Task: structure prediction
Amino acid sequence: MKRLAILALLLAAAILLMATPLIATPAIAATDQSARWGALALGGNGFGAVRGSRDEASALSGALRQCEESGGGGACRIRMTYRNQCAAYATGEDRYVGISHAASITKAMQLALRSCRALTSHCTVAYGACSLPDSFN
Result:
């Protein structure tokens, strides 16, 4: 009988813990005023890239708008967002692409080329840029 009461108490505690969040995670972008966001969008024949945005939403909407206006129309999709880093986009035969981000532009380009070359040949970097806090002060 005593074991049954202990099991019931443990079960009730587990249910209570599962229903209650233990830690609230603050939004990084809302509290970090030095954060700089970037985004890449691709689709159809379009490409859009934004860097240096103060928030993720602005980077997303800007990249999508550029992609749509450059020929992507409704086919444009966000392929990557990044914060306080560099990004690169490489393209090869048959419209295969490689996209990457890293702490430096050189590393981002190397990773994008590696990703593209894993899929196809004749890859070249089509875009590379950084979105770092000290670049936009």
The longest strand covers residues 46-53. Confidence is low (pLDDT under 50) at residues 2-31. The chain is about 40% helix and 30% strand. The radius of gyration is 22 Å.
